[in-house]
Amino acid sequence: MHTFNVKGMTCGHCERAVTQAIQSRDADAKVDVDLNAGLVRVDGSLDEATIREAIEEEGYEVQ
User: Fold this and answer.
1) pLDDT exceeding 70 applies to what percent of the chain?
2) Going by C-beta distance under 8 Å and a sequence separation of 6 or more, which residues neighbour residue 3?
3) pLDDT on residue 15
4) Closest CA relative to residue 21, chosen from 36, 29, 6, 38
5) Sheet arrangement for strand 30-34
6) What predicted TM-score, i.e. pTM, was given to this entire model?
7) What DSSP assignment string belongs to 13-59?
8) Domains in the chain: boundaries
9) Gap between the Cα atoms of 62 and 10, Å rounded
10) What is the mean pLDDT of residues 10-35?
11) What is the CATH number of domain 2-62?
12) What's the whole-number average pLDDT of the chain?
């Protein structure tokens, strides 16, 4: 499992955008977005760099 601190997520649309971006690369990935904490947890076959790229392509900053 990978956990990322992500800046800029504020609403349900943000949650869906990040989830869909990750799942477009791994349809079986389990994605948990915690808007209040600014965390994204991903359990799947993707490596950290690929997940980071997917999140950043949606316009969010991964710390």
Assistant:
1) 100
2) 39, 40, 41, 42
3) 96
4) 29
5) 30-34, 39-43, 2-7, 61-62
6) 0.91
7) HHHHHHHHHHHTT-TT-EEEEETTTTEEEEESS--HHHHHHHHHHTT
8) 2-62
9) 14
10) 96
11) 3.30.70.100
12) 96
Sign of the dihedral through C-alpha 12, 15, 19, 21: positive
Give 14-17 contacts, CB < 8 A, sequence gap 24+: 14/60, 17/58
The predicted pLDDT at position 37 comes to 96
Residues forming beta bridges with residue 5, ordered by sequence position: 39
Residue tagged 């955008």 (tokens): 17
Query: From CA 25, how far away is CA 11, in angstroms rounded?
Result: 22
Q: What is the mean pLDDT of residues 7-19?
A: 95
